Every structure is written in C-alpha cells, then in structure tokens.
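Dig into my protein:

:::
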Amino acid sequence: MLPAGPRLGVGAVLSRRFHTFAARAAGSSPVQPNDPTPRKPVPNVSETNALPTTSTGNQDAALQETVEEGERRRVRQAPNRDRVWSGSQQERAKAMVGPRFEQVIMEYQPQPWAAIDLIHQQPVRWRKESLVSCDGGGGPLGHPRIFINLDQPAIVPCNYCGLPFANERHRSTLESLPRTSYPLEPQGKPEEVEERQRVTDHPFEQR
C-alpha cells in the first residue's frame, strides 16, 4: 500500500485548476493578454477601395471611396449622430469589422438616421383641450391610444411615439422661452410628419 501524500487544501486545488485552465486558454488564444509585442490594429477599410471599380448593372459611376472617407462612414453611428445614444447599443465601429466589410464601399451600406434626433424635428401639436389622445396616426403604423394632460405650460411628448403636444393657452409662455426641445411651428423640413396624412379614423385602417 502506497503511503498517502500530502493533502492539498481547497485553496491550493482551486489555484492549481485555475492555472491549468489559464494555461490551456492561453495556448488556444493567438494573442496573449500580456503580449510584449501586441499586434497593431489593421484598418478595416481596404486601400483598394480608392481604385475605381466598374459597377455594371448598378449605376453608371464607378465604385470608388478613399480610405479616410470610408473609415469616417464606418465609425459614425448614424448620418445625424456620431456616437451611440443608448446604453444597449453597440458602437458601429465595433460592429462593422471583419472580412465581411473588407473591400466594401461604406457609402452604400445601410445608414439609418437616428430617430432620437428626428423626433425633435416634429413641430408642436397645439390643442385647446386639457386632455388629448395620441395613437401615432392609427393603422398598422400607429400605437395603442394614450391620453396626455396639457394643464402645465410645457411641451408634453407622447410616451410611445414622441410626438409633442401643448395647450394653446400656454403658447405665449412657450414662445417667450429662449429655446424649446421641439419647434413650435412647422419648419418645412422633410423630417416633419404632417397631421393631415390621416385619411381615416378607423383604428385598423391605414392612415
């Protein structure tokens, strides 16, 4: 019968297992966490994009984009927003990486505008009632109807769609302010949603 060896404590066992796991993980990883010679980051935008390429069947102009312009479009979160505006969002610079986006013209990649800025282009909906309702316009593009209190001299946005409402009797007070979060009158911008787009009051019909 072999003599019993020295018993290891729980801490020593866990420490040995941790070092074994770390060694295996380090062996499988091409880049060490404390690598004395870390790799330099390689730009995701290819220099070959600066060379004109034919685009037969798509458009008459050649596909061409400089590295600087492509990198600027790649890292910008939206055409009207440079950075993220929500904690749950991922930065576009971290998402637009890898072979999928190499030798790709960034100008023709999807770039939706940030709704957080677009909604603040909507002019105030002036109402004479103290209690109004909003359903987003009705139909499949709308939302459940909610009621909004306009007693206070302030612009009150809808909790669903963000459309702004205010009471007519507070117009002079709001117009006296140096700045408001929503324009008080239509500005003629293409982002504005006109109220007369509603063509029906039935809840399940398109506006």
